[in-house]
Inverse folding.
């Protein structure tokens, strides 16, 4: 599958090398996929003394992870008041809380592994039009009712506080931003020192699930045998699951040239996104750039997707300048990626009964990274024989 094209700002050179697999391997757990999901799964397994191996078809990190704009939000693509209609109040609220806790856990992990590209932020979710205000207010009330630290800003307050014109907004205390590509390498490098083996440029071409083991064969005929396998294969998991679990889309992002004025460009340098469908989102970078993303298209077709990149770059720049006409924004990098969303906006995590001895870590949607953390924690728990009552929320059986 063609996962991305253009030049993602974050992919600023290779930061570490990993070997190809050139021999047979036997271990406890094989993780297919060395993106942020596979790297976090490996972190939790190694932490719990479960021997494991990560194997990836691409160079490490160069799947969707390299395209990620790496906003970390507890706010799932499906607003809480709508998620309740899909999965009920208890599971919807729990999903939001798990994402909120995932941001804190990612922060703890990055401190432990001494990864510095991580900043906690506030997040502003604004109504894109006047007709979105009523829904935004409902969303605010329901989040507040369930204990989330949010405040509702009316039009005047949005302008006074942030300097942008919007009819209303929810300001959330909890959010963060990182660099998923560098975070992935940091996690893998940290765990290699603790015994993790990582192989890249090693496509798995055959997987046999039996009652006791799983046997994988690589493109060059090497075999990997394990008691369990974790599929951290991102959107390419559609190749392994015979159920329609996600809708593939195309999404776009741009990064500006480095601005000469110092940050913050707007109050508190907060993350910004809106109620439009597809939504627009904005963040800054450590080196004084602005990233703008959105303008999604409802298809998976790399050719059509890539042809639109120039047009989308112009549109996203215009979207930004409409909000902040006084900021000197010139796009320098633009890229596009495949993006997958599920019917309810939640990820798929856990077992799939047609493939014994397997676990899936599928953090789909705009919150892919926080979902990856939740998946890693749940799966590590299952491997240690611990019951996790939250696992059912994300199971394949729910839809
Ligand atoms: C433009 C864009 C912006 C985004 N912004 C955000 C954001 O701001 N915040 C957020 O949380 N999420 C965001 N996401 C989503 C996020 O990037 C993804 O959820 C996340 O990177 C997925 O990581 P992953 O490890 O699951 O998948 P990937 O990074 O795609 O890794 C999966 C790996 O599996 C490997 N693989 C697959 N099949 C095989 C096989 N047969 N053999 C060997 N290896 C195999 C692939 O080579 C690949 O490297 C964004 C996505 C895009 C495209």
């Amino acid at each position: 599958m063609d996962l991305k094209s253009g030049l993602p700002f974050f992919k600023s050179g290779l930061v570490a090398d990993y070997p190809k697999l050139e021999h047979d391997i036997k271990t406890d757990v094989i993780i297919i996929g060395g993106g942020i999901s596979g790297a976090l799964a490996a972190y939790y397994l190694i932490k719990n003394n479960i021997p494991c191996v990560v194997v990836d078809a691409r160079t490490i990190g160069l799947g969707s992870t390299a395209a990620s704009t790496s906003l970390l939000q507890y706010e799932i693509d499906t607003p809480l008041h709508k998620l309740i209609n899909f999965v009920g109040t208890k599971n919807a609220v729990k999903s939001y809380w798990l994402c909120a806790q995932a941001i804190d856990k990612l922060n703890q992990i990055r401190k432990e592994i001494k990864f510095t590209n991580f900043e906690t932020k506030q997040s502003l979710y604004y109504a894109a039009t006047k007709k979105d205000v009523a829904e935004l207010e409902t969303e605010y009330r329901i989040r507040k009712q369930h204990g989330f630290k949010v405040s509702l800003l009316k039009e005047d307050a949005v302008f006074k506080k942030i300097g942008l014109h919007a009819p209303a907004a929810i300001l959330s205390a909890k959010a963060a931003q990182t660099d998923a590509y560098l975070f992935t390498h940091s996690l893998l490098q940290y765990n290699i020192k603790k015994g993790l083996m990582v192989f890249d440029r090693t496509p798995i071409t055959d997987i046999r699930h039996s009652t006791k083991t799983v046997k994988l064969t690589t493109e060059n005929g090497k075999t990997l045998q394990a008691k369990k396998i974790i599929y951290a294969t991102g959107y390419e998991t559609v190749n392994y699951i015979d159920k329609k679990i996600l809708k593939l889309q195309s999404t776009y992002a741009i990064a500006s040239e480095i601005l000469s004025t110092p940050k913050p460009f707007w109050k508190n340098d907060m993350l910004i996104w809106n109620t439009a469908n597809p939504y627009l989102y904005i963040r800054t970078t450590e080196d004084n750039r602005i990233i703008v993303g959105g303008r999604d298209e409802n298809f998976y077709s790399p050719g059509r997707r890539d042809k639109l990149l120039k047009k989308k770059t112009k549109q996203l720049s215009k979207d930004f300048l409409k909000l902040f006409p006084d900021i000197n924004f010139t796009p320098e990098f633009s890229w596009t990626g495949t993006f997958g969303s599920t019917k309810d906006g939640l990820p798929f995590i856990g077992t799939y009964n047609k493939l014994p001895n397997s676990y899936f870590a599928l953090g789909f949607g705009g919150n892919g990274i926080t979902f990856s953390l939740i998946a890693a924690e749940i799966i590590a728990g299952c491997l240690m024989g611990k019951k996790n009552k939250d696992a059912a929320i994300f199971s394949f059986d729910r839809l």
Observations:
- The chain has nine helices and 18 strands.
- The pocket of flavin-adenine dinucleotide is lined by residues 3, 32-38, 55-58, 63-65, 67-71, 180, 203-204, 232-234, 236, 251, 253, 293, 337, 339, 363, 366-370, 372 (CB under 6 Å).
